[in-house]
Structure formats: structure tokens, C-alpha cells
Design goal:
511 residues; alpha/beta; Rossmann fold; 2 domains; six-stranded mixed β-sheet; binds adenosine-5'-diphosphate; binds magnesium ion
Amino acid sequence: MTKDLQAVPAIELRGIGKRFPGVIANHDIDITITSGTIHALVGENGAGKSTLMKILYGVQKPDSGTIAVNGHQVSLSSPSDAIAIGVGMVFQHFMLADNFTVLENVVLGAEKIAGIGDDARNRIRQISDDYGFDLDPDDLVEDLGVGERQRVEILKVLYRGAKIIILDEPTAVLVPQEVDALFDNLRELKDQGHTLIFISHKLDEVLSVADDITVIRKGTTVASVKPAEVNARQLAELMVGSVLPSPSTEGSTVTDKVLLEVIDLELDDATGRPELVDIDFAIHAGEILGIAGVEGNGQTELVETIIGMRRQARGTIMLAGEEISEWSTRRRRETGVGYIPEDRHRHGLLLDAPLWENRILGHQTRPPSVKGPFLNPPGAKADTGRIVSAYDVRTPGITTTARALSGGNQQKFIVGREMSSDPILLIASHPTRGVDVGAQAAIWGHIKRARKAGLAVLLISADLDELIGLSDTIKVILRGKLVATFDPQSVTPQQLGSAMTGADAISEERS
Ligand SMILES: Nc1ncnc2c1ncn2[C@@H]1O[C@H](COP(=O)(O)OP(=O)(O)O)[C@@H](O)[C@H]1O
Ligand SMILES: [Mg+2]
């Protein structure tokens, strides 16, 4: 058989190393990327994926190692070197000028290749048609949605002649329908002979779209696999380097001491329409009560009423035997309610404040945040350091802003903060939504430890495996009512699903 061009890899990286002050971002990286394939690069946050791709795009210079593109060894000292040999990159954060058109954005910086004008306009139309991008060269970028902006970025690198295209976490900013559309675009690009390198830490996505997968852990390549050879769990374990704990509960720690009791609770909206109807339940020390439901069936309202952000129309809330129904949120929290909010960006964190100030947030009346009547920055700082290490929050330091942390690390920080004030009730609202697998496992561990320590835990989640794995009891909420109760040991996701949609009327009387 003759050696055809296809046999020459699009990219060969050998022994790539890169240090930053105090950090080894990459070491001994070896990757071979076959021409005309979609190659996924997966790894936890901070694993070194972006650094590696910046090296391949000429943005960063490696300290060691070699790069070969289409069989030729290259030395890249800037993105224009990479573009000249057909390598383009779409960054995690788009770099488009909002008040310019698609045409202007695409041509911006590439005037040497083609002057702005009808030629450029026609070529953009052509590329858009070829790959199904559905973009008009004369549309203003500020009028485009996120998915469309991303296609402009891809079009921009195609316009510059890229045959090898790197996309850094392209799906992080997209909703599911947009992800599907992007994958269609990627497959189309591949069918027309392009090579795609796609960074992600969403494993289902990677398994659905990639031809090959390289796993990077702590700066180095640890595995190279095909999607057919692994499942999401195995891939996750390769990423984190250990067997992941499943959420499954160990032996029961449920006691007969009731910590939270909700009696005949009803909540109305501003027009008097009922939002919560006849809610009754109790959570004991050492018990996790899971609430399953299709989003928007009263979960948020239930949590907000228990925490005191909304005031019930009728009914009683008891915390450790004391009625708290009329208490302020602050007083409830001071008495022992920890809260992991559903939307950590709106309710859990001040994104632009340093971590140590976020330590104080919601805890501004108690040590170590205060000393006597005064705020106590040194106390808050010391305790932030403790949380960072005890909860494995990966951050350069306690003065780093919350925004600079990955979602998983933000969430680990919130869990650490909430657990630090010795709550008796922990309300966890979608605690692992949008976080990577390593952080998810860590958060499950913390919730299990809270249960073991004798807290009552109210867990709201859309992840049925998480609910089944962690809860001692699961209740289903539908249109503001608790309609069914299940034992997680015996319930199936299908049964939960039917109760959640009301398809399973028989379950109504189970409890
Ligand atoms: N320009 C830089 N200066 C200093 N440290 C950096 C720089 N870029 C990345 N790092 C560090 O290198 C490590 C790998 O980062 P990165 O390549 O961005 O990881 P990933 O993309 O896998 O999340 C991290 O510890 C990060 O903080
Ligand atoms: Mg990255």
C-alpha cells in the first residue's frame, strides 16, 4: 500500500513542556492528531488544555518539545505563523467587535489577504453556504446570538485559510440546541477535509462528536482513547485520576430527631394564585430529603420560603423545634440554615469581590467575620484560607475574585462557607449543576459528610441519579404540590420521571 497524504498526521506534539511562575502548565505532552478527524481534548479545569492549544497557535512559546504540522516540524512565534500554515483558533471568549458587521469582523486584520469589498462579501457568503453557517456578511454582530457569534469566529479562521481549527470549550457558552447545531457544523467541516480540535470537559458531548479523545491531567497526557472504548464514567475517572465516588448513600444515619418540619405550607404569588399548596414534610437529623421535579414546579419557591426570602400565605416552618415562620432570612441563617443557592452568580457570590469578602457574604454578623460589633477582615481571611484548603478550592489565593474561579471551584467554596457556620439544616439547590466531574464528586462527598454529621439536608436537583444516589427519601413536586414519596433504594429514574410529569397517578398515595 502506498503512503498517502492521509497517513501524515495533521498535528504531532512531542514532549511539550511549559512552565509559568510557580506552575507547570504542561509537561511531557504527546499527542497525534489524525488529519480529517474531530479530536477532543478533555481534562479538568486547570489541567493545561488551553495552554497547550495556545502553544499550537503560537500565542505561547513552549519551554521544550516539538510541533509538527502535516509532517513538517514548525516553530511558531505568533498566531500569524500558525495561520500561515493553516492552523486557526477560536477562543473561549469571543473577540468580536460588537458594532461592526460580520464582514468587517471577518476581514478585520486580514486586509492583506483580501480587501474589504464584494470579493470578501462573496467569499463570506460562500463559506457560510458551504458549511451551513447561515450568516449574512452585512449583519451587525451586536444583533447576533451567541451561537451565531461563534460561527462568525469559525468563519473568520476559515476565511484565513485554516485547515486545522482549534476550538477552546466552544460549548461552554451554548444552550443544548446550539450545541447540536455546532456539532453539525463541526461534522460538516470534517467531511470537507478539515481537522478539528475541540476542548471540553463535558463528557457526553465529547463521546458523541469526537473520533479520538486525548485526556490531559495535571499538565500531561494520560490517555488516548476512542469513544467506543469508554463510557462517560471511565473518561471522568481518567480525567481525575481516581475511581470516582458514586453518589450512593452508605448505611442510613437517619435519626428520629426532627430538625426541619414544614406543616400545611402554602405560598401565593402577588395575584393570589397558589404557588405552593399543602406542603407537609419533615427532615430528621442525619437525613437527606431529595426533591425531584420538572423545573418550575415550585422547587425555587419552596426553598425561598424555607429560607425566608418569600413569606408563606399559610402554614408553619419549624427548625429544631422552634417556629421560624416569621423570622427574617438573616435570623434563620444565624440559627443554623446553610444555603447552597440555585444561582450561585446571583445569590451565592459577589463575583468581583475577593474570596475573603465572599467568605463574609451572608455571614456578616458572626465570627470570624466580625469581632464585637466590627467586621474582622483578618478573621475572615484566615478562615477563607482554611476553607480553600479543606474544601480543595483551586485558586491562586484568597484575594482572587470569585469570578476568576471555575464553576466547580466557586461551588466548592460556597459549600465550604456554608458548612463553616455549623448549620443544622443544609439546603442544597442544584449543588452540582454545571460543575466538572471532579468538583461534583467532591460536593457529593461534602453533602454526605453533612448527613453523617447529623444535619438535615434538603436537596433539590434535576439530576435524578444524584437524587437517587444521595437521598434517604425522595419526594416529587408537581405544580406546587408534593405528589409522591419514594424510597431511593427501590425507585427507578423512569418511575420518578412519570411522577414528575403527573403520568403516574397511582403513585400519588404512596408514602
Ligand atoms: N499566562 C499564565 N500565567 C500564569 N499561569 C498560567 C497562565 N496560563 C495558565 N496558567 C496556569 O496554568 C495551568 C493550566 O491552565 P490552563 O491551560 O488554562 O488549563 P485548562 O485550559 O485545562 O483549564 C493553571 O494552573 C493556570 O492557572
Ligand atoms: Mg482552558
